[in-house]
Amino acid sequence: MALIPTHRPRRNRKSEVIRNMVQETTLSVHDFIYPVFLIEGENKTIEVTSMPGIQRFTADRLLDEIGQCVDLGIKSFAPFPSIDDRLKDRLAQESHNPDGLYTRTIAQIKKAFPDVVIMSDVAMDPYSSDGHDGIVDPDSGEILNDATLEVLGQMALAQARAGADIIGPSDMMDGRVAWIRDVLDRNAFSHVSIMSYTAKYASAFYGPFRDALGSAPKKGDKKSYQMNPANRREALRELVLDEQEGADMVMIKPALSYLDVIREVRNHTQLPVTAYNVSGEYAMVKAAAQNGWVDGERTMMEVLMSIKRAGADAILTYFAKEAAQVLRRG
Ligand SMILES: NCc1[nH]cc(CCC(=O)O)c1CC(=O)O
Ligand SMILES: [Mg+2]
Q: What does each C-alpha distance from 31 to 34, 166, 194, 263, 304 come to in angstroms?
């Protein structure tokens, strides 16, 4: 005789209203931080070939783009600069030029949109002739941790002076959160936050980003500072250090292949947890959608929801604008 089920979870899925009533995770436009690419010049946009739908903007065009995003409810932006090769050197000196492309544009954005939050990027790679996040020892090829801290501090200070609300060190040098906090505090920027890239992995998913900025390492890889994708406990060690050093928010990067790390970190901290849905994760969805192999819109929303469900409070994502349009439509 067939047994009749006494427990029927399907009852909670029987209509859209009930499904919405019991939904555990929600996605909102407030969750999004939009990474945007900046180029020198006027009235120009250049598409990033490996990221369909994503452009590099001159400052004037970026202001238009930010205006459109603000109308959609996106209020947080993470700009990244594409720097002319002639301005790059081994010490990334352009990174703390108060009249440089990056600092100038941050000031312009804050002037045009005072309520918008700018999370600025602190790492040497966009300005480094070596394409590394730290200073390369010319003899040994080693990445010099403590000498790099000096540059990172100057970079963070220049960005704070330009009006950045949140400093985002993405470099993975040891001790940089404490170093930057100290520099900010000693220069009357104690109100400026630090969102640390706490667990940033040496990932193949950064490829399209490096195309966008021309920032790929000239020699070697980033494995002596970015984390081994095989490690989860190590993320908790980085978390403890960033908490002690004074981070206001922590980040996991990439997101999609690291949902377990997001959850682990969520379970071990009271700080806000963010995740970076990186360029390669974006490109992957776009490529499959362009081939008609997945439904691009549904896949995008599922990816973003999964990052939220894993425990992220906010998501850096190139999908921000498109997802905001979907959310608006309801
Ligand atoms: N400071 C490095 C940096 N800043 C942002 C990204 C990647 C972001 C993305 O892929 O979307 C990277 C990774 C790297 O090149 O090592
Ligand atoms: Mg660290």
A: 10, 16, 18, 17, 10
> In tens digits, what is the pLDDT along the chain, a chain of 330 residues?
689 999 999 999 999 999 999 999 999 999 999 999 999 999 999 999 999 999 999 999 999 999 999 999 999 999 999 999 999 999 999 999 999 999 999 999 999 999 999 999 999 999 999 999 999 999 999 999 999 999 999 999 999 999 999 999 999 999 999 999 999 999 999 999 999 999 999 999 999 999 999 999 999 999 999 999 999 999 999 999 999 999 999 999 999 999 999 999 999 999 999 999 999 999 999 999 999 999 999 999 999 999 999 999 999 999 999 999 999 998
Picking from 132, 95, 138, 150, the residue whose alpha carbon sits closest to that of residue 223 is 132
Of all protein residues, the one whose alpha carbon is nearest to atom 14 of ligand 1 is 206
Contact 119, 164 (CB under 8 A): yes
Token code pair at residue 64? 């238009």
- Which ligand minimizes its atom distance to the CA of 238? 2
Tell me which DSSP letter residue 319 carries.
Answer: T
* Residue in the structure block whose two tokens are 């930057």: 180
- Taking CA atoms only, the protein residue closest to ligand 1 atom 4 is 170
Cβ of 269 below 6 Å from ligand 1: no
Could you confirm whether domain 26-329 is CATH 3.20.20.70? yes
Domain boundaries, given as residue ranges, for the chain:
26-329
CA separation for the pair 242, 252 (Å, rounded): 12
Query: Would the CB of 105 count as within 6 Å of ligand 1?
Result: no
Q: Check the annotation: does 234 bind a ligand.
A: no
| pTM for this predicted structure | 0.97
**Which amino acids are annotated catalytic?**
200, 253
